[in-house]
Amino acid sequence: MREETEETSPQKRLLAAIGPEVKKIEEAMRCDLQVATSQADPLLVEILEYGIFNGGKRLRPLLAVLSARLCGLQGEKIYDLAIAFEYLHAATLFHDDVIDRGETRRGKPSVNKAFGEVAAILCGDFLHSRSMFLVGSRGGSASLEVFCRAANGMVDGEFLQLRNSRNHNLSEEDYFTVVKGKTALLLAATCEIGALAAGASLPQQQALSHYGLNLGIGFQIVDDLLDYLGDAKQTGKAIGNDFQEEKMTLPLIAALTSASPEDKKRLLFLLDNDEARQTGFSEACALIDKYNGFALSRNRAESLVADAVAGLAVFSEEAALPPAHTLRALAEYVLTRNK
Amino acid sequence: MREETEETSPQKRLLAAIGPEVKKIEEAMRCDLQVATSQADPLLVEILEYGIFNGGKRLRPLLAVLSARLCGLQGEKIYDLAIAFEYLHAATLFHDDVIDRGETRRGKPSVNKAFGEVAAILCGDFLHSRSMFLVGSRGGSASLEVFCRAANGMVDGEFLQLRNSRNHNLSEEDYFTVVKGKTALLLAATCEIGALAAGASLPQQQALSHYGLNLGIGFQIVDDLLDYLGDAKQTGKAIGNDFQEEKMTLPLIAALTSASPEDKKRLLFLLDNDEARQTGFSEACALIDKYNGFALSRNRAESLVADAVAGLAVFSEEAALPPAHTLRALAEYVLTRNK
Lengths: 339, 339
Hints:
The structure is a homodimer.
Chain A: H1 2-36, H2 42-52, H3 59-70, H4 78-100, E1 104-105, E2 108-109, H5 111-115, H6 117-163, H7 172-197, H8 202-229, H9 232-235, H10 241-244, H11 250-258, H12 261-272, H13 274-279, H14 281-290, H15 293-310, H16 322-336
Antiparallel strand pairs in A: 1-2
């Protein structure tokens, strides 16, 4: 219990610090969607409401706002740009859940499950367009280029994952390429575009892009760890999903890399065999742990996040300002989150 | 035979006139995709090649180029903007075929059939982003707004269609709303953005948007007619598809509106009943014809297209120039095409 209190306390401080920003982000999304869907089909409006206002962490818009603030941007205009990152993220989740036939998202039925695949594809397309419009019109051409590169990087990451979906011999390198594409590139773009909106210098843009990229990879590794070690009640997702879907994530890859031939064979058997995958999850966890798969992954996440924060040294003059504090606290949160 | 010669001859002249432009459009797409996919997964490149270079008519980019030229734009830069409309169109087709479980497209397996649904969704997303990027960076903020409005109108049209998918009592008004969303808004946007790129006056922009909208509706009505009356060898699509899928298109709606209670009942029976739909297609055609459903639809298409052309009167000084000629010839082609 004591440990939990120590862990959640900085999280609570962080939540208090970002609370007002998250509220503004939510308001900006409500306002914008009202305009964007004023003539739209009521079903589209209902699905967007269901799929977007679901207690999401709003990490992406928050990063855009914080990056812009750190680079000196004042005023409220940034929110209209920042929400584009949440839209693109949501569009990707809608389509991902169709692709993976995901049935739950944040503890409730996914959009495809609740409204059907067709609706999920179409609503994803709608949000996709809207996000591009916001970035193009609020952020300008340079931002749109960064944004589209990230969007296409996400598709590319999905393709690599698709190509390797049954490849139990996935290399760490390929794992990181997929993670960059699927998660980290958008976070990097978010921070970079926030900096661009503030007219930041190139070193500042690069530092924030670097921060977003490494934070994103760290974030995904922790996600992969939670899929093995998390608490389903906290995460809102079934534990062991990745293993059941034969998804090669870092803990498993790391263990397979250093396991004895015998243990490697056993671990692959548990993964290959439909029945063993169901019944042998705890055994697989024990084997991964035996070869420090979880610890190695956590170390990796920690050093990436440390690297992300270290890069912010370029903001030496701004280091004491609230946005710098919050970016560092977010980095810490990424490592300590349990959902 | 005599009739066919008369019909195809202006088409051949049109093809000769647009041939060089279509070639430039194809080249621009190849160039752009090479840049956009230089670091992409080879499978993505393969699918884009398969899905895009398939003998399409390139009507949308062509309309953008012609509109810009009519408004006085010279030079080659317009092609990079124009291809965005083909990309968005292709993205929509990829997703539509997933949604409708379409198996063929232009006489060969659809992308979802050939490469799977996941690949079709992802490639659609890729093209969607790329199209937005091109319009935002080449056309600027005003163009991007028009473009995104059209993209979201397409989603909205799909939603209305989805909502009415089993509604055999669809009104003409709803039919036209769906057609506007699914086809005509993008054609209107294409022409309008072509005009914007040329720095055209507002009346010129509006005339071209009006041209695109009406041409688009006329185009779709002809498409719906071809689905009943076309030659599968020419169209590359099975005839009677819409009826089999219980899609309410104008010929059917028009016939149901004026049919005697007895004939209406019979037509609805043929439509409602799984077996009767298969065996009773010729009978349904005869009933539609009895109430002039085909003729009324054709008249409607003809008057819309005539209206599209009439609006070009604002270009009185440019009326004798090649782009004006070609836009008029395209309007004629829309009505006479047999595939």
